[in-house]
Amino acid sequence: MSETSTARPHPVGNDRKLSDCVSREELRALSRSTNWQGALMLGGNIALLAAAFALAIVWPNPLTFLAAILLIAGRQLGLSIVLHDCAHKALFRTPWLNEFVGRWIGGAAVDVPLQLYRDYHLDHHRHAGTDQDPDQGLVKAYPVTRDSLRRKFTRDLTGQTGFKEMVMAWKAPDWRAKLPFLAFQLVLIIALAAAGAVWAYALWWVARLFVYPAIMRLRNIGEHGVAIDRYDTEPRLNTHTTIARWFERLLVAPNNVNYHLEHHMFAAVPPYNLPRLHKLLAERGYYEGHTCITRGYPAMLEKAVRAG
What we know:
Blueprint: H1 18-21, H2 24-30, H3 35-58, H4 62-87, H5 95-110, H6 114-126, H7 136-139, E1 144-145, H8 146-157, H9 160-169, H10 175-194, H11 201-210, H12 212-225, H13 235-238, E2 241-243, H14 246-251, H15 260-265, H16 274-283, E3 293-295, H17 297-303, E4 305-306
Parallel strand pairs: 1-4, 2-3
């Protein structure tokens, strides 16, 4: 184990292997992606995004503005997960659909080039549980004190994190790589202009700068920050799943992204099959004796806090 590990004592766990709990035939079926399910997931994100804007446009008042901003931020995360799943070539069965949607919709929405993200993220999977994992820096401090966690989310919700990220993203831009992002923004502006509400474009940026960073932090904590030992190559120790309630799925856990342990075990399984995989493994005792599953994000955040 690395000397820099902040690991907590290991649970008793069990030595049950994945091959004892899921057969090759079951895994083959779970790994089968379909274009219609990928389109349904993508369409759901776009529909909720449109509904959020419509809510603020049709009934403009402070409460609907707040609700719209929260929903938009959740769909920004949803579109970033579309990018993630396309990077794994798992959202659609047809390869070019993964490339097109990942670049021109998912990556474009959050200003992240598909291939750049793919190279980085596959390194994360390849080196999970080691010092070479490029995502270790995102969660290396956890668990943290309650005051430290409060300060982190305060920076997010006051825009400090969002503006810092924006400055870094545009410090020395590659304009060819920025083309999908600029095209996405143009389409968004045109759509809002057609609805007679160009002013609503501001809601996208309020969500992106003041809420999205906090949701991303919540995601990172829930995926690896509360893992028992981030420097162990056993997925049940270095990765974590949060069972999200319906409103959490709506706001902070879109596209089944909360089933992160299952994703790390079988990255080829498309997001719409992850709940089935989780249910199968849970029923067959794969998680018994481990603390890699938490119900609800408040309970998950309690795991991210230490005394002091």
